[in-house]
Structures are given as C-alpha cells and as structure tokens.
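Let us practice reading a record.
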Amino acid sequence: MAPSSPEISVHIKAPDFELITPKAASRMPQERLFLRGGVKIVKISPTMVMKYGDSVHMSEAKTLEFVRHHTSIPVPRVYAAYTHGPFEERDEEWASKYDTYIFLDFVEG
C-alpha cells in the first residue's frame, strides 16, 4: 500500500550538505537551464544545479560518484540524490511514480 503522502528516500548525501526538500526547492530562486519531457535542470545558486523529474534516474548520480571516487576524470560533485514519491496520478501513463532529485556542481558549458 502506498503512503498517504509522497516521501523522500535519500540515496546519496554529502556530510556537509543540508538536504533541500522539494517544497523548499520550489521556493528558491531558480534559473531554468533545461526542460524536456520529464527532466528539468535549474541553477539554484552560482555553484549548484538541481536536476529533477520523473525521467531522471538515480543511476546517473551513482555513476558520477563512482567516476569521481575511482578515476581521475573530472565530473561534477554530487551533494545529494533522492527519490520523492510515490505519486498516484501522473499526466502521462509512462511516467514514473517517483521524481528523482540530484544536487550537483554547476559546470559551465
């Protein structure tokens, strides 16, 4: 049985990062960088972006973390990644019942 309201399930969190909930994020000033389908990327500070939506996958955040810790390839630092949901109603029948949120370094380009 699904919870009565959507819940956050944290998968990655840097020790020095204070988690930003979807509600808090929606109140922050945002500069939209990308919007297509179920993926949104917004700049929430001069040095950080938030990538989120029902077509964002946790595997992206986990892959960035793996590459950062096991190679010398430069990749953005992931500060936090979590899922939020489940949502019973979605506009598209193919959409995930969860939104994934990834907070990472802003990299120009």
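A brief commentary: The helical segments are 22-27, 58-70.
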